[in-house]
Amino acid sequence: MNWIYIAIVTVVGILLRLGFVLTVPNRPIYDFQTYQDIAVNIFYHRGHTYLGEPIAFQGMGYPTALGYFYRLMGNHDVLTGKMFNVICSSLTLILFLLILRRLTDRKSIIYPAYTVLALLPNYIAYNNVIGTEVFVTFLFCAVIWLQVSALPTYLKYPLLGIFIAGAALTKPFFMAYPVLVALVVWMRTKGLKEALVCLTVTGLVMAAVMAPWTYRNYEKFGRFIPVSYNSGYVLAVNNNDNNVKGGWMPLDKIAVSQETRNQMNEILQNGQRSEKLAHELDPLLKEEGKKWILSHPGKFLELGILRLNGMFFDGAWDIRAWAMNDFKGKNQPWSPQVYERNMNAFIFFSGIIITILSTLGLSYVLLNLKPLVQSVFRRSYAASELVLIPTLNLSFFLAVHFVFEGQARYNFPLLFLLVIGTVVCVEWLRRGNRREITLSA
Predict the structure, then answer these.
(1) How many other CB atoms sit within 10 Å of the CB of residue 349?
(2) Membrane spanning segments where (predicted)?
């Protein structure tokens, strides 16, 4: 390894993150403001509350971590929260390098992949957002590194359970992740016993770490809520007759029966109660969403495709919307025309990068389907981690967002995997020998 080059790229990447946070004005809006409000309440020892009431609408991981970071720093300034993101993002860079070195010894893959990730506009800009993206990507990267690390299993599996729990408490769909970890173990080693041990240990440790929060939810809301109560909300909002884009829409605009609408109005007290506090909506909307999907499989398929398109091929508009929303008019030296032109050019080129990464990264998944199928049906054939890690993890996220919700910012935790797939695809084209690069067992 050329550690001088790696150090320079790392320092430049961190400085760009700091520079963006310190020079680009941005304010929390929508869900991001909710995260900030909850973190502030935790800072003031008011518990995980919102508008004076207990809440579990979203995962508790990020606002809780942020709230305790605020306590550590002695203030709850938004800039302090952004500095927390810079720390997490910088640690993600280090973990990504460790992952690359475990997956391959080819410098022609390691250097380009690390450079792209360190300088990726999204990974720089989102440090400015009080949201889950940077934090959950750090946890996800830690989970991937633990999977490929050389740690003994008696350390690796419990640590995996802890970090998966952290990810699940931030994004609840990670509760299914121990199955994927065990699948990777089995497909890499063909050892069924080891895979079952992995599944058992990671699953039990994850459940143990999550148990206090689940118990708290039972105490507060009177029913079993492992992490959050918004899955029914998200399912129904994104899967109904009035949804035409596959993304979020206002709850009062979704198509439901009049009976369900009356129940919703009663729960929400005709608009007087925040839907984020209305935990009673979850089972009602979950049932509506399931019924609609089962009775409209064609429309569901159509919306699922639109969701994935919105995640991977809708450019980088989210940078401007979520990371630079207070930039215009803040002591800038440009005229309005120059500002718009510069901003549009920046978003356009950032979008081109995302499109390239999505195209080649997802192509990597498709190209690896055959070796994965071979690995499943041939006991003597084991795929390498360079195939398994990006392909299975990307497939997992694709399945989740196909069903629930898709928008540009949801690709954020996957960008480091897309970078790996893209660089390996380029290496295939350059060397003309795909098998030599990836399929060694």
Answers:
(1) 11
(2) 6-24, 83-103, 134-155, 161-186, 195-215, 345-369, 381-404, 410-429
CA 408 – CA 315 distance, rounded (Å): 7
Q: What are phi and psi of 52, to 5 degrees?
A: 85, 5
- Alpha-carbon distance of 113 to 103, in angstroms, equals 12
Find out whether 100 and 114 touch, Cβ atoms under 8 Å: yes
| Tokens 């970078």, residue located | 419
Burial of 194 (C-beta count, 10 Å sphere; 0-12/13-18/19+)? middle
Helix axes 61-73, 153-170, angle to 10 degrees: 90
- The H or E element that residue 49 is part of is strand 49-50
Measure the CA–CA gap between 317 and 140, rounded to whole angstroms.
24
* Category of 383 on φ-ψ map: left (φ > 0), alpha (ψ -120 to 50) or beta: beta
- Count the domains in the chain: 2
Biggest CA pair distance of the chain: 66
Cβ neighbours around 56 below 10 Å, total = 24
Of the residues 264, 292, 313, which one is the last residue of a structural domain? 313
Phi then psi dihedrals of residue 54, to 5 deg: -65, 145
Q: 84-113: string of b/e by CB count within 10 Å (b at 16+)?
A: bbbbbbbebbebbbbbbebbbebeebbbeb
Burial environment of residue 230 by CB neighbours within 10 A (0 to 12, 13 to 18, 19 or more): buried
> pTM for this one?
0.94
| 393 vs 332, higher pLDDT | 393
In this structure, the answer to whether residues 363 and 298 fall within a common structural domain is no
User: Alpha-carbon distance 204 to 284, whole Å?
Assistant: 30
pLDDT value, residue 1:
66
Q: How many CB atoms lie within 10 A of CB 279?
A: 24
pLDDT tens-place string over residues 104-115: 999 999 999 999
Q: How far apart are CA 403 and CA 176, in angstroms?
A: 15
pLDDT tens digit sequence for 132-178 = 999 999 999 999 999 999 999 999 999 999 999 999 999 999 999 99
CA atoms within 13 A on the CB side of 16: 19
Same domain assignment for residues 225 and 87: yes
List the domain range (segments joined by +) for residue 170: 3-229+314-438
